Amino acid sequence: MDFLGLKKRGQGLRSWIRVDAATGNSQMIEVDKFTMMRRCDLPARDLRLLDPLFVYPSTILGREKAIVVNLEQIRCIITADEVFLLNSLDSYVLQYAVELQRRLATHSGDVFAGGSTSPDYLPFEFRALEVALEAACTFLDAQAAELEMEAYPLLDELTSKISTLNLERVRRLKSRLVALTRRVQKVRDEIEQLMDDDGDMAEMYLTEKKRRMEASFYGDQSVLGYTSAGAGVSISAPVSPVSSPPGSRKLEKTLSLSRSRHESMKSSDSTTEHVEELEMLLEAYFVVIDSTLNKLTSLKEYIDDTEDFINIQLDNVRNQLIQFELLLTTATFVVAIFGVVAGIFGMNFAVPLFDKPGAFEWVLIITGRGESILSFNLLCTSTL
Question: Which keywords, in A-to-Z order, does the entry hold (predicted)?
């Protein structure tokens, strides 16, 4: 194996589709792994989930500045300002980029026309995540529907005609069903895990975190400016301790504590509200993927019922063969006894019974009746 070639491929440039949140424009860029790690503030293990050289189950990870999404064909990094979609020739990847651009353009048009956002407005990262969930759920549901259309006629044909070809086709169909069910189950579990953890959902609100960081940065800058201005005043004209009595200092401290407490309560209320908003979004697609899983579960139960029906038919045929074999064995035993009697009468030694004219006929009659009774008892015992 060419390990050096794999290493170079892992560290080389990769093609990405970048979708801007402000304009909705998309462009093709080529970025190496380390540049993407620094740009999105992600560890290497998160980017490894998006590597097409590896096969990982569906995953949605919320990080400090990005959301890592690996849902079937959709492998992307969502930030507060842009989306980096791993370039691929798959139609679902191109549909994701086109659909995201369309929704961004629609939202921008509504804002410019109405001048205000709707109450159910979603930030950019949630809209990008929604399109990814929709693409993954649509893809899995389409595969489930295709499998259903192929499975039910094949199973009906198998119940009417059991053949090696039909059994092989059902075996392949069941293998595909198990693999698809595992993928759908993983997407469902990932969404359910996010819904059960408020901390993970709060971590995914990137726009809010960015706004708070900017507000904190500008607040620190203003505090630094005020401090420097106050220092200049104190150097030129020192303030007398009498001018700032202890009561005023206590009042300022109380006001600052109340302001910080109010801001923290407001921040927690905002986080809870946005968590509920994201939870409703995830719940909608949880219902969709759960419906797909129910379809696959019903199909698996139908396959199991068909297998049970075929096993019953095969058991019935097997029982008939066993009964026929027992009948042949009984007939062979009867014929063998007649052969023994005929062999005894054909021996060359003197027996007084041989001299009687009707002795041979009576021996045959008695032997035949005895064998009939014995055969009847054996057949009755086998049927029971």
Answer: Coiled coil, Ion transport, Magnesium, Membrane, Transmembrane, Transmembrane helix, Transport
